[in-house]
User: What shape does this take?
Amino acid sequence: MCSSLSCRKEYDVNDFSGNLKPYLERLSKEKAIPVSDTVAKNFLERNASKEELIKLMDAKKPLLRVVAYRAIVNRSEPEYFDLLINHLSDTAKVAWWYYEDAGSYFSVSDLMIRKAFDKNGLSPIQKKVLTERVLLEHSYLDISNWMIQDIDPDEKYYHLIKERAKTKSKDCGNQLTSCYALSKFRKKQDAKLLLSVFEQNINGYCQENIFKSIEIFPDTVFFPLLKSYIQDKLSEKKNLDNNVLYFVKAVAAYKNSEALEILNYIAQNNTYINKGFWPPANKTYVLKALKIHYTPVYDPLIKEIEKEMNPCDLKSLISEITNETRAGNQQKW
Assistant: This one.
């Protein structure tokens, strides 16, 4: 038995009709996605038949397979989800420049999934099917890290997520993304593992996921880490960086007097990151966290900060909190 991809015939440029051939030859010379020859790309998208584009998804050159699938998605061809599912095993690498000065190599299937996601045409059922297929059968794909971050806790993914949370990687974001996913299960037996990873990374570049993890799983074992983190961080010369909002939400999730003490300290040391108008004062961040994780213990500080705020700004903040709460209840995948 051969895999679905290895059983397929691979097509050469010469296997396509004459009017497409010169443009496919030009696209074959491209080195990365997105292609620089937009004339050839646009011609393909406008003039190739659906059957020709599907056939091109089995081209010998991996980059042409990505170009073909992008054209199919852009044209909203109804088969684009089924085609994606059938090509998840396509692990050939293609260079992708996701910013003008930043790029790397990704598998063809990774790039197909990203394109389908960017189009935002997948139904909730399709997203669920895609997530399950990737995480259970193709977890080696780079996109799986993204999916893990956004899925709801499900026992069938628990082992995979925990193993990734244990695994230190060159990019701290990958491990801490898995820790965030693991925190959603809120299992007491995972707290020691999570704390160990958090302690190793608390002074690094991936603090956001540490604080997001603690917010969703505010186990008592993490609170001393939050207390030690804030010490000597606020002064005229020192400011918390833009992780301050994630930090205060993590603290507020504990909903007790000790948390209130830290939040009050941050509000009183109302400093700015760059001594300018952006980002907002720490008090605004604190109020937002207090509203999201409300408990009567927080009433005095809430009233104190609200009295200082412009009514229009306060109304805007409440609207922002409502929108973020709604967004947080929706899955990307």
Observations:
- The CA atoms of residues 252 and 293 lie 6 Å apart.
- The chain has 18 helices and two strands.
- Residues 311-328 form the longest helix (18 residues).
- The first strand starts at residue 93 and ends at 99.
